[in-house]
Design brief:
Elements (H helix, E strand, L loop, with lengths): L3 H16 L4 H10 L2 H27 L1
Helix pairs in contact: 1-3
Length: 63
């Protein structure tokens, strides 16, 4: 079972959700191909990366 395809699609879907930009056709297509657990994992991972980037930016500005 190849998890790289659906998981990468989930990361792309979560990234678009963070930006708030999404075409209806892309959304409907993704719903047919991804698992909820992949979307949750991708969202948590991208959220962690976002927080770490913010912490890095604050550290660079205040250093």
């Amino acid at each position: 079972m190849n998890l790289s395809g659906p998981f990468l699609r989930s990361i792309r879907t979560a990234a678009w959700a963070f930006l708030g930009l999404r075409k209806r056709a892309g959304h409907d297509e993704d719903l047919a191909h991804i698992r909820p657990v992949h979307v949750i994992t991708a969202g948590l991972l991208l959220g962690l990366v976002f927080v770490l980037l913010l912490m890095l930016a604050v550290h660079l500005v205040t250093a």
